[in-house]
Amino acid sequence: ETGVTQSPTHLIKTRGQQVTLRCSSQSGHNTVSWYQQALGQGPQFIFQYYREEENGRGNFPPRFSGLQFPNYSSELNVNALELDDSALYLCASSRPGGVGNIQYFGAGTRLSVL
Amino acid sequence: DQQVKQNSPSLSVQEGRISILNCDYTNSMFDYFLWYKKYPAEGPTFLISISSIKDKNEDGRFTVFLNKSAKHLSLHIVPSQPGDSAVYFCAATGTGGSQGNLIFGKGTKLSVKP
């Protein structure tokens, strides 16, 4: 069984640029969530996708957007990058009917905005 | 306003002894609580969870206790091993199902000394 994979592992961008991060969900999982983890903080929920539709969103501006594809993989897009967007971006997947909302995380993409 | 709080940034224990990690929450609507472990350069790994209708859940060396009246939960690791050294995150969810976001604390860094 393949776990959650994210690409790239590291990324350096400059302020104002746009970035796309990618995530492949664990086999059999149809729900993907994205989190931002700043240094010294816990992961913060950005949004969730279920069956290719956004299914909940945290307190992030519209320049954070996403997609989910028919194979349940997902993208996170961030436009007009700001210095504060520097963080670890984590993708998590969960299976349908799972009790307790257990989410399985990838290793993350480390984004640095200069 | 933090809904999930881990007030101890770090904890150091001797190998073989008990590790107790604490977590407080403010929202009485949470219905599941989860603990994740995170090693450097890896994503958070699910450890153990507890439903709000229970007060204890045990899995091998790991036991989670929930005190709803105090809005407090704790993770006990007995006996502690050097490989348990990691950052531990407490998380809560309020959907009662398989979707929805996890709300994380800031984490506690556990160091288990040989």
What does this structure look like?
With 114 residues, chain A is an all-beta fold. Helices cover 0% and strands 50% of the residues of chain A. In chain A, strands 2, 4, 5, 6, 9, 10 and 11 form a seven-stranded mixed beta sheet that branches. Chain A has a four-stranded antiparallel beta sheet with strand order 1-3-8-7, with no helix packed on it. Chain A is globular, with a radius of gyration of 13 Å. Helix content of chain B is 0%, strand content 53%. Chain B contains no helices and eleven strands. The model of chain B has no long low-confidence stretch (mean pLDDT 93). The interface between A and B is medium-sized, with 32 and 28 residues.
Mean pLDDT of chain B: 93
Name the poorly predicted regions of chain B: none
Give the structural class of chain A: mainly beta
Low-pLDDT runs of chain A: none
Number of strands of chain B: 11
- The beta-strand count of chain A equals 11
Tell me the Rg of chain A in angstroms: 13 Å
Number of helices of chain A: 0
Q: How is the main sheet of chain B built?
A: 6 strands, mixed
Largest sheet of chain A: 7 strands, mixed
Distance between the ends of chain B: 38 Å
What count of helical segments of chain B does DSSP give? 0
Query: Biggest interface pair, residues each?
Result: A-B, 32 and 28 residues
Which structural class best describes the helix and strand composition of chain B? mainly beta
- Quaternary state of this entry equals heterodimer
